[in-house]
Amino acid sequence: MSTSLQKSHSKASNFKLTLICLLTALFNALLWAGVAMIFIPMVPSVVAYITLGVGAAGSVLFFLLIGKFSRG
Predict the structure, then answer these.
(1) Is the distance from CB of 62 to CB of 27 less than 8 angstroms?
(2) Among 48, 59, 65, 67, which has the minimal tally of Cβ within 10 Å of its Cβ?
């Protein structure tokens, strides 16, 4: 018989949380890469703003998913 603590810390739950955190870090890095690209003259501004937008949207989405995540 498994306890509620064992259920809530299952491999599936740990995997979901790890994936959400990993994608949050990835989109946050993409956001800051977009900010940095704005100041690089060789990068077209369209590419910089698209990168910035995708990074910002993904960061917000995954920050919200972290807030909604619950175990069990």
Answers:
(1) yes
(2) 67
Cα-trace Rg, the chain: 17
pLDDT in tens, the chain (72 residues): 566 666 667 888 899 999 999 999 999 999 999 999 999 999 999 999 999 999 999 999 999 999 999 876
Give me 52's structure tokens.
């910035």
With the C-alpha atoms ordered 6, 11, 16, 18, is the resulting torsion angle positive or negative?
A: positive
pTM: 0.83
Question: How wide is the angle at C-alpha 43 spanned by C-alphas 33 and 52, nearest 5°?
Answer: 35
Of residues 1, 58, 53, 57, the one with CA closest to residue 26? 58
CA–CA separation, 7 and 37 (whole Å):
44
